[in-house]
Amino acid sequence: MKKPAKKTPARPANPTGRADKRPHEVRIIGGQWKRTRLAVADRPGLRPTPDRVRETLFNWLASLAGVSGGELPGWQCIDAFSGTGALGLEAASRGATSVLLCEQDPVLVEQLQKLKTKLSADAVRVERGNGVTALERAPAGTLHAVFLDPPFENEALYVPSLRAASRAIDDAGAVYLEAPRAWSDEELAPLGLHVYRHMKAGAVHAHLLRKGPAPAA
Asked: How far apart are CA 51 and CA 60, in angstroms?
């Protein structure tokens, strides 16, 4: 008599039907910590900015700063939805003298604290909290750059964080916005911003925003 065949346990269903293509690590592109690898924790909504998008972004910022080599000497920055810390740590690596990494997830906050210690990143401060609140607390017109990369699924964060960032940057400063769609000058005008640069990489729309109305065509 044959024994009944063993049943293979069913695998958990993948609700998206796609393989998980999120990177397990990213790297710092330039500056004193160039090529340093940053682990990407498996956390809900965590979606680090791709290396090539960050390279383009920091070339844009260096051009605004009028310096060569991609450096940002003396800059003050807030990375409001920090995640892996890749954006804020990149700024600190390139010479920013004050970088606040703000993150709500306690696991990611602990990881950021360990990175700060490992890199002896004296210019970096890690804070567990709400990114919008951190921006609203910043004195008006004091920041050179604000990095906004909120969870794509939380659309309610975009307008308040953009409004707070617009108030916090100085007249020559910039706001980096990463979003699942392109933002128009018409949408940004009530928030005191306009699109200075834009690129699309896969599902990511990367914007560099400046204060004031869009220049006349």
From this structure: 14
3-state DSSP call for residue 131? helix
Q: Within 13 A of 15's CA, how many CA atoms are on the CB side?
A: 0
- Cα–Cα distance, 184 to 104 (Å, whole number): 29
Is there a contact between 174 and 149 (Cβ–Cβ < 8 Å)?
no
Q: Are strands 169-179 and 204-211 parallel, antiparallel or unpaired?
A: antiparallel
Calpha distance 92→25 (Å, rounded): 19
Q: What is the pLDDT of residues 6-38, one digit of tens each?
A: 544 443 443 334 334 455 788 999 999 999 998
Contact 66, 59 (CB under 8 A): no
Q: Phi-psi bin for 206: left (phi > 0), alpha (psi -120 to 50), beta?
A: beta
Q: Against a cut of 0.70, is the pTM above it? A: yes
| pLDDT tens-digit readout, 61-79 | 998 888 777 789 999 999 9
Q: Which two tokens stand for residue 49?
A: 């900015």
In sequence order, which residues have a C-beta less than 8 Å from that of residue 52 and are 6 or more positions away? 201
Interatomic CA distance for residues 13 and 169, integer angstroms: 45
Coil/strand/helix, residue 156 = helix
Contact 177, 81 (CB under 8 A): no
DSSP symbol at 183? P
- Our CA angle for 121, 40, 81, nearest 5°, is 65
